[in-house]
Amino acid sequence: MTNILIICGLLTGLALVLTATGVILVWNRRIKDQTLSRHALLAALVTTGSGYWLMRRPFFAMNLQDTELFVSLGLVLVLSYILFWTCIDRVLASFRHSDKFKESSVLSMLYMPSEHDEADFPETQLMQPNSRRIPKDRS
Q1: Does 74 score more than 70 pLDDT?
Q2: CA pair distance 43, 18, nearest whole angstrom
Q3: Could you tell me the CA-to-CA distances from 95 to 24, 83, 108, 110 in Å, in that order?
Q4: Can you tell me the distance from the alpha carbon of 50 to that of 119, in angstroms, rounded to the nearest whole number?
Q5: pTM greater than the 0.70 cutoff
Q6: If you compute the radius of gyration of the chain from its CA atoms, what whole number of angstroms results?
């Protein structure tokens, strides 16, 4: 039982290290939306391969049958793929929103430095502060 917990801890640590590496790659603009699935699959395969290697080491002596080994490695593959995909997709989403905000003219008008101080045209009678409205003709 302790061997299984040690292997699970090592694989979880490896998956977290790969996810942190993925976050750094997103910050350096190496991972984009189009390449996210490939990177997630690569991270999951590295984690699964490491799990297979750890389970076959004589130190841990995991005498799993083929079915148990297949199921456990499939679980490692799926969970590490989901972990990497979810974390990196969240980081990419924050980058997407920040890029859209920088290019948006409507959102930038909400802040004081980008507001227009004066109108580019002279004020009309309706725009003057203390003017009366001109009544409509009642015919």
Answers
A1: yes
A2: 6
A3: 13, 19, 17, 21
A4: 66
A5: no
A6: 29
